[in-house]
């Protein structure tokens, strides 16, 4: 965590994204984003790499974050999903079965715990 | 007889005696068994020709005569010594090593030869200890068997023919020359006893070996004696000779070789028999088939194909000629095939004259020829009474002659020599002598065939091997022949000429001693002339010196004294001879003067008997002058003497002459008287002859008469035979039992059918009929017979068999002879059971028909079908109650009335048809008639009517029968049913759902309209196909298979339902709720299947949409809750007190709630800016005064924009109400909305919030308040636009730029 403790947040609901960012910043993480679309996140990723990422599954207007998640997985960047759907429901692609998930609304401690777990995995 | 050494011998079998007998055999058999010793150790087997049909009592007849046990042979029975075994009459007997085997007699075997068969097996099993005895009988059975026994070393005995009643069998056996003993039957037991003791003595190996050694020591002596017969056996293999000598010794029961030698010397016959034994030939037709095949292929065929030269074949050691004839058959067959006219010659030679005689006769038994292939047998052998005879064509090319291969000069220019199994009898040196002879005999590259165990004795350079296995060789033409006829020894005299046997081969010609040589030299050079003179006065031998005294006379040369010697010697020699012959001693005639060329010499002529055979040695001794007289005197004396001699001779001749004359005269007298006698006898004979001539003529005429009578009789006989045969056939073919009885009621004859009634059998003729149990009870038989006899009338009776109930008609008639005399009775039994039964059946049938008639009548009256009968005028002849009821009149009322009268409405409709039936004579069936009858004048009724022509016996249609069935009700029912069906069809076709009717096997019977139309199908495209093969399921095999499975399950009674896609018009797929349900009949049997389905595509889509909506809703709710959580956390951070926090949070939640209400009211399709603004600004807007004014366009916002702006406007309004323009009564807010751009922003849509008239504004100290956070940070992000918040002095200004509207 010495050199990089930036967490990328992708969340189309600005208020929720900023809330997440605030929770993480309070826990001494740097936050990239929150990006509201995959495109923004991708653009950022071209220049930088987070220690881990939190992705909202449903990015509004029928778009989702699975493509982005695949890119992260390919780049070996750990990430977790945030989702409005019940965690048990099969809305998330099977390839991400092992990806940790949080169901909205979630508490700041849960978020921090997940990020911590993810970043540990990265290092 | 007590045997030496071994005590009682009954426990062990030393030999087996086979006794064969036929006609006249019982007597000698009894003689033999009566004399058999009780303990000889021999087993006796009697094979007697017996009829297989009659039980034999032979064993009883023999048992009476002997103490030995007599038993009938059973299959597998053990051979018991000292017992007499009798062969059964039904089977043939053969021997196993220790038991008997019965062989079923082969009826085809001709002639039947059980004795040969038994003897052959006896030879095989017993070998040298087999004895065969041939007794009285005809034919030749036993002969071949005896030969086999002898070949195996056994002993043959034949009954002497003079005391055999039928000598045929024993004579045939003796003719083989192989029989050891020929003697009367009564002497046979003693002979057998001797033989048994010999066998016993020989049975110990040691004694046999001992004897063999003894014989071997003296072998040369024995062969020398045998050689006197003209055959030299000195070079034969000793082992064979010794065995045969030992056997002869046994037969002669001589125990020592010395004794046997004495016997041989004394008894010429014994030497002959031993010779015979030495020469036993083993030969048969086509011995070793494969060898013959090879010979035919390699030798005979090429020879037969060779033209222009005679074919010569030689078989040395031919024995009885089988080999010769076998080769001859092959040769003739081949030559004929090649159509080759070359002369053929086959020489068979042997030293055994008996065998040659047999060969020359060309007769062979059936057993002997069984190896001859059938085609050859038919071609070359002719069957005669005793077997087979070689036909003359074959016989004449075969030449048999005595010849000794080892001694006589060989034949020459032979093409093929078959010399099989001869060399084995010869010792190696003799073989070595024979092979070059054969090489000499064969010409060019001719062939030589030897026996299987014979070879070339080392002379491999003379022949080359053609086939090693069969021992076939080819002569090497280039090899030098080592045989020369000239160098050969002088030939022995041919046998049978009575001359002294001289063993030239053993004469020591070249080994002459010195003494002999000297003597010979002297005799040639210095001896007096001498000669050997034969009994008849012929000169046999002349010495060298004697040749000077020979002067043959003119004429045919002769060796008699009178014509051969010089004339001067003739007289004295004859005188000397005559004296010597007369006195039997030497006689000399002195001083004979012989004139030789140049001088005259004086000799004494001496004749001396020489040897035994009336030969005389003649010696001329030259008389010396020293005898005291001059030659002249001597001559004078000689002349004187000769004169005296002549005078004496003259006187003697005169005496002889007068005696001869006297004898002649008396002979003449006798002759004359004889002549006279003869003349008279001649006369007598002449007259007798005439008488005989007359008698002959008479006899001739009688004979002719007899011929005629005979012809007539023959004719009659033929007719009788024919009649008899007809009668016999009649008897046998008739099923009628006919019994002929004589007047005494004895059976005379009967037909076979009679045996069924009376238990009579064929040989019961002559027995009284009363003896037989009859199956019919006929106690009145005798009574009836008397009655028939009395009045000669036929009596008839019906008789019933007690058991089976068959009925017979008996007729008893008198039996009349052709001359009309009563001679018994004829009883005829006709089986009339069938007739009886038929009569009963007819009676039953009549009754049955009567009953049926009544039934038919009843049926006619009661049937629900209307029936009537109309005549040509259509008047009722008959009508039944049912039709009368239909017509509405009583049945009786119809009869005789016209149809038109009774049913006026109907008549015109049917009269035409009825007439048509009359006209055409053909029935009209199934016509439907509608109309009214008087029975129900108001109701239209329907009937089906049939009209049948009714014919009289002549075939004329005299009436028609009508048959009327009412179908009014059925018609109505059918109409209803049709209506119902059509209604159902309409319902089916108008259903929304698809429906189809299938047969249980899945065949589509019907499909409703929606199903067809939806897929735009025509009936013929699908009806009749298997449902799963139709268009609807053609998009997927899997689906089709599933349908098929469903149909199968349904067919077994299950109801199947599932959702599935079907193919409809244009290939589109729709989802249907599909069901296959079975339709069952009353018994639960599935009779058809109903497939149905309705389109659930829409419902499916709605379900999908609903699911999506639910997901969306959940997402929204969760997001909202997350938003609320975020808001609550911001507010909590800045909260001063719980109540303040609560107020602020509540206000925010209410704002959110309002926005949600708005969106929900709009179906979350978004809302206009005005509406959103109104939600927060409404407390400050009224009809009269509006403190929040909106300027410019109203713009459409999407739900997200609505939510964000809703929250932003809430913060702006709250802030304005607390600190800004709305906190004062006069302050106001202007919201300027523009679509189409503004100066301050690049975004196309812009909203500018500007407060005016409120308190002076200063930027807040803490900009981290929720309101500014929401507007500055959150709003821009959510809108993806631009937000500027300016705290201008005259009031806050908030500028919001939005991208192009998504809503």
UniProtKB/TrEMBL annotation, chain A:
Q: Name one GO biological process term.
A: phosphorelay signal transduction system
**What PROSITE patterns does the database record attribute to this sequence?**
RESPONSE_REGULATORY (PS50110)
Q: Which residues carry this modification: 4-aspartylphosphate?
A: 56
Entry keyword Nucleotide-binding = no
Coiled-coil residues? none
* Phosphoprotein keyword on record: yes
Kindly give the SMART domains that the UniProt entry links to this protein: REC
Give the domain of life: Bacteria
Keywords linked to the UniProt accession: Phosphoprotein
Q: Which residues form the Response regulatory domain?
A: 6-119
SUPFAM superfamilies xrefs: CheY-like
Record protein name field: Response regulator
From TrEMBL, chain B:
Q: What is its EC number?
A: 2.7.13.3
CDD domains per the record? CheB-CheR_fusion, PAS
The parts of the chain that form a coiled coil are: 636-730
Per its record, the protein catalyses: ATP + protein L-histidine = ADP + protein N-phospho-L-histidine
Record's superkingdom?
Answer: Bacteria
PAS domain boundaries: 980-1050
Q: Which SUPFAM superfamilies match?
A: ATPase domain of HSP90 chaperone/DNA topoisomerase II/histidine kinase, Chemotaxis receptor methyltransferase CheR, N-terminal domain, Methylesterase CheB, C-terminal domain, PYP-like sensor domain (PAS domain), S-adenosyl-L-methionine-dependent methyltransferases
GO CC annotation, single: cytoplasm
**Some GO term, biological process aspect, for this entry: which one?**
chemotaxis
What are the UniProt keywords, alphabetically?
ATP-binding, Chemotaxis, Chromophore, Coiled coil, Flavoprotein, FMN, Hydrolase, Kinase, Nucleotide-binding, Phosphoprotein, Photoreceptor protein, Receptor, Sensory transduction, Transferase
Q: What class of enzyme is it?
A: transferase
Q: The CheR-type methyltransferase domain covers which part of the protein?
A: 225-476
**Span of domain CheB-type methylesterase:** 16-188
Which residues catalyse the reaction? Answer: 22, 49, 141
Does the entry feature the keyword Phosphoprotein, yes or no?
Answer: yes
- Can you provide one Gene Ontology molecular function annotated for this UniProt record? protein histidine kinase activity
Name of this chain's protein: histidine kinase
Provide the species name: Parvularcula maris
């Amino acid at each position: 965590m010495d050199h990089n403790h930036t967490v990328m947040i992708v969340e189309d609901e600005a208020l929720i994204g900023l809330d997440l960012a605030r929770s993480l910043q309070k826990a001494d993480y740097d936050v990239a984003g929150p990006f509201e679309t995959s495109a923004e996140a991708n653009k950022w990723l071209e220049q930088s790499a987070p220690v881990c990422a939190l992705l909202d599954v449903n990015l509004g207007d029928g778009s989702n974050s699975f493509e982005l998640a695949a890119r992260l997985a390919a780049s070996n960047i750990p990430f977790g999903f945030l989702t409005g759907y019940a965690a048990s429901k099969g809305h998330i692609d099977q390839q991400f079965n092992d990806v940790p998930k949080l169901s909205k609304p979630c508490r700041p401690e849960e978020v921090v715990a997940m990020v911590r777990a993810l970043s540990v995995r990265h290092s | 007889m007590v045997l030496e050494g071994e005590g009682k011998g009954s426990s062990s079998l030393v030999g087996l005696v086979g006794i064969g007998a036929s006609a006249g055999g019982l007597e000698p058999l009894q003689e033999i068994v009566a004399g058999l010793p009780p303990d000889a150790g021999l087993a006796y087997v009697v094979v007697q020709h017996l009829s297989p049909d009659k039980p034999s009592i032979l064993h009883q007849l023999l048992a009476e005569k002997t103490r030995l046990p007599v038993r009938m042979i059973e299959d597998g029975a053990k051979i018991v010594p000292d017992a007499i075994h009798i062969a059964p009459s039904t089977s043939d007997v053969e021997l196993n090593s220790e038991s008997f085997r019965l062989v079923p007699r082969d009826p085809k075997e001709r002639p039947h030869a059980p004795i040969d068969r038994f003897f052959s097996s006896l030879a095989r099993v017993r070998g040298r200890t087999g004895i065969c005895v041939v007794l009285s009988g005809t034919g030749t059975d036993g002969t071949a068997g005896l030969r086999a026994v002898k070949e195996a070393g056994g002993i043959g005995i034949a009954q002497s023919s003079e005391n055999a009643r039928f000598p045929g069998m024993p004579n045939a056996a003796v003719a083989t020359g192989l029989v050891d003993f020929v003697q009367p039957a009564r002497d046979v037991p003693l002979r057998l006893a001797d033989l048994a003791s010999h066998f016993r003595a020989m049975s110990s190996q040691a004694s046999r070996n001992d004897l063999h050694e003894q014989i071997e020591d003296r072998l040369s002596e024995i062969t020398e004696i045998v050689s006197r017969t003209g055959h030299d056996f000195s070079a034969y293999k000793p082992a064979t000779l010794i065995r045969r000598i030992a056997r002869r010794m046994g037969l002669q029961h001589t125990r020592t070789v010395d004794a046997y030698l004495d016997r041989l010397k004394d008894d010429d016959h014994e030497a002959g028999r031993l010779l015979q034994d030495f020469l036993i030939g083993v030969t048969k037709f086509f011995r070793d088939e494969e060898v013959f095949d090879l010979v035919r292929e390699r030798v005979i065929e090429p020879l037969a194909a060779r033209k222009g030269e005679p074919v010569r074949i030689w078989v040395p050691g031919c024995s009885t000629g089988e080999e010769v004839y076998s080769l001859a058959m092959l040769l003739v067959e081949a030559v004929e095939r090649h159509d080759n006219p070359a002369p053929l010659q086959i020489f068979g030679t042997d030293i055994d004259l008996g065998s040659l005689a047999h060969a020359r006769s060309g007769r062979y038994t059936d057993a002997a020829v069984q190896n001859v292939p059938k085609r050859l047998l038919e071609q070359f052998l002719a069957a005669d009474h005793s077997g087979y005879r070689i036909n003359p064509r074959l016989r004449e090319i075969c030449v048999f002659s005595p010849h000794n291969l080892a001694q006589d000069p060989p034949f020459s220019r032979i093409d093929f020599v078959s010399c099989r199994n001869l060399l084995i009898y010869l010792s190696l040196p003799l073989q070595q002598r024979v092979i070059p002879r054969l090489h000499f005999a064969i010409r060019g590259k001719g062939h030589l065939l030897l026996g299987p165990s014979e070879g070339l004795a080392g002379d491999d350079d003379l022949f080359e091997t053609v086939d090693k296995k069969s021992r076939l060789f080819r002569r090497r033409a280039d090899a030098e022949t080592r045989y020369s006829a000239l160098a050969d020894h002088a030939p022995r005299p041919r046998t049978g000429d009575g001359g002294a046997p001289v063993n030239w081969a053993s004469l020591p010609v070249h080994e002459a001693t010195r003494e002999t040589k000297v003597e010979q030299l002297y005799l040639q050079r210095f001896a007096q002339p001498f000669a050997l003179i034969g009994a008849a006065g012929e000169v046999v031998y002349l010495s060298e010196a004697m040749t000077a005294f020979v002067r043959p006379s003119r004429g045919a040369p002769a060796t008699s004294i009178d014509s051969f010697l010089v004339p001067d010697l003739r007289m004295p020699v004859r005188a000397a001879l005559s004296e010597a012959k007369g006195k039997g001693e030497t006689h000399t005639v002195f001083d004979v003067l012989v004139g030789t060329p140049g001088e005259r010499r004086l000799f004494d002529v001496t004749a001396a008997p020489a040897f035994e055979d009336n030969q005389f040695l003649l010696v001329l001794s030259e008389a010396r002058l020293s005898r005291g007289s001059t030659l002249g005197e001597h001559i004078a004396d000689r002349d004187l003497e000769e004169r005296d001699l002549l005078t004496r001779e003259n006187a003697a001749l005169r005496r002889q002459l007068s005696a001869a004359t006297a004898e002649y005269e008396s002979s003449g007298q006798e002759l004359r008287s004889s002549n006279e006698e003869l003349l008279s006898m001649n006369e007598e004979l002449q007259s007798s002859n005439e008488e005989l001539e007359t008698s002959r003529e008479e006899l001739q005429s009688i004979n002719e008469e007899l011929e005629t009578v005979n012809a007539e009789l023959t004719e009659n006989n033929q007719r009788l035979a024919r009649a008899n045969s007809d009668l016999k056939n009649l008897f046998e073919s008739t099923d009628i039992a006919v019994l002929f009885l004589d007047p005494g009621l004895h059976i005379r004859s009967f037909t076979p059918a009679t045996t069924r009634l009376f238990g009579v059998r064929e040989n019961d003729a002559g027995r009284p009929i009363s003896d037989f149990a009859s199956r019919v009870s006929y106690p009145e038989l005798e009574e009836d017979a008397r009655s028939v006899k009395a009045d000669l009338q036929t009596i008839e009776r019906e008789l019933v068999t007690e058991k089976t109930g068959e009925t017979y008609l008996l007729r008893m008639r008198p039996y009349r002879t052709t001359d009309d005399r009563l001679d018994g009775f004829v009883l005829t039994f006709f089986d009339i059971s069938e007739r009886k039964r038929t009569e009963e059946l007819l009676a039953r049938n009549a009754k049955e028909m009567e009953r049926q008639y009544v039934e038919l009548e009843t049926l006619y009256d009661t049937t629900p079908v209307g029936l009537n009968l109309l005549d040509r005028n259509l008047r009722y002849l008959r009508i039944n109650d049912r039709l009368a009821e239909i017509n509405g009149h009583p049945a009786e009322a119809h009869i005789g009335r016209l149809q038109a009268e009774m049913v006026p409405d109907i008549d015109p409709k049917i009269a035409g048809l009825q007439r048509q039936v009359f006209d055409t004579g053909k029935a009209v069936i199934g016509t439907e008639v509608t109309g009214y009858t008087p029975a129900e004048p108001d109701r239209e009724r329907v009937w089906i009517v049939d009209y049948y022509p009714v014919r009289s016996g002549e075939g004329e249609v005299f009436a028609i029968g009508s048959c009327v069935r009412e179908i009014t009700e059925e018609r109505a029912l059918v109409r209803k049913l049709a209506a119902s069906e059509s209604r159902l069809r309409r319902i089916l076709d108008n259903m929304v759902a698809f429906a189809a009717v299938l047969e249980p096997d899945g065949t589509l019977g019907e499909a409703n309209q929606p199903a067809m139309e939806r897929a735009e199908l025509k009936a013929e495209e699908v009806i009749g196909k298997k449902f799963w093969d139709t268009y609807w399921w053609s998009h997927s095999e899997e689906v089709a298979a599933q349908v098929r499975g469903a149909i199968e399950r349904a067919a077994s009674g299950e109801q199947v339902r599932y959702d599935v896609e079907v193919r409809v018009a244009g290939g589109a797929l729709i989802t249907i709720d599909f069901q296959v349900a079975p339709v069952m009949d009353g018994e639960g049997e599935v009779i058809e299947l109903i497939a149905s389905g309705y389109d659930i595509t829409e419902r499916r889509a709605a379900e999908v949409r609903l699911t999506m909506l639910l997901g969306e809703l959940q997402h929204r709710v969760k997001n909202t809750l997350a938003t609320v959580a975020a808001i609550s956390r911001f507010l909590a951070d800045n909260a001063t007190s719980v109540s303040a926090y609560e107020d602020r949070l509540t206000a925010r939640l209410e704002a959110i709630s309002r926005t949600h209400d708005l969106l929900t009211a709009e179906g979350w399709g978004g809302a206009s800016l005005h509406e959103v603004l109104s939600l927060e600004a409404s407390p400050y807007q009224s009809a009269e005064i509006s403190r929040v004014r909106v300027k410019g366009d109203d713009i459409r916002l999407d739900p997200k924009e609505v939510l964000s702006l809703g929250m932003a406007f809430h913060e702006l309004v709250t802030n304005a109400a607390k600190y800004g323009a709305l906190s004062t009564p006069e302050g106001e807010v202007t919201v300027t909305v523009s679509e189409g751009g503004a100066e301050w922003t690049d975004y196309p849509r812009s909203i500018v919030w500007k407060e005016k008239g409120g308190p002076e504004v200063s930027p807040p100290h803490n900009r981290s308040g929720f309101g500014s956070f929401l507007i500055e940070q959150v709003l821009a992000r959510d809108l993806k636009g631009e937000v500027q918040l300016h705290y201008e002095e005259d009031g806050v200004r908030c500028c919001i730029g939005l991208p192009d509207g998504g809503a």
